[in-house]
Model the fold of this input.
Amino acid sequence: MPPFADIKKDLGEMVEYNGTLNIVKAINYYNPKCFLLYASSTTLYGNVLEASVKSKLQVTELDYYSSTKKKCEELIKDKLKNYTIIRLPFILCNPKSGAFMYNVKLNTMLEAISDNDAGFLFVRALDKIDKLNKKIFNAGGGSSCQSTYREILANVLSIYGLSFNFVLIRTFMDKNFYSHIYTDSDTLNELLDYESDSLYSYYMRLKRKIKNKRIIPRLLAKPLVFFLKRKK
Done:
């Protein structure tokens, strides 16, 4: 995942593209009718405010993560008979393991999806293969998951506190995990009815998980949270 996928291009290619290639080869060898449900990324749309599956893909030269995802999509569409590509946006997950969460420009308006809803939609998709087949979808979290990245970051830091990933990425790395508002995210939800989360419920889960832990990281984050909220 970004930002580390943009540093280790060869490793990203080996894991993402070669891994997908192996799956495609196995499907065609053992069971050409097999259905592949592939998790892609909305970063393919580049630095724009709104996007839909009809939007032009804009992959920049140094965005190795997105360029690899694009190659995987082209491979799947070209070589498989049955597939669905679901482009995932900014995912609300564990702030410790989700390093990409810190790789967005502050003033970006975005539509996120929780890790819970993202997982649920893939399970639901297994029962709707006939309606999903040979199509591409954006998997947004709906209006309750729309906000500025600045606001999301301020809330996450106030609950979770500073982390090594945050300091490293915000200090040294380009902010090129592109996020957007999706004008067609309701299309997939109408088929799968997977949206049950919101930014509020995500924050509440994070609070319950942290409880009285990470006291010092949260204290260290207070000046930064104040700065973020003051700059609205």
Summary: The chain has a mean pLDDT of 93.
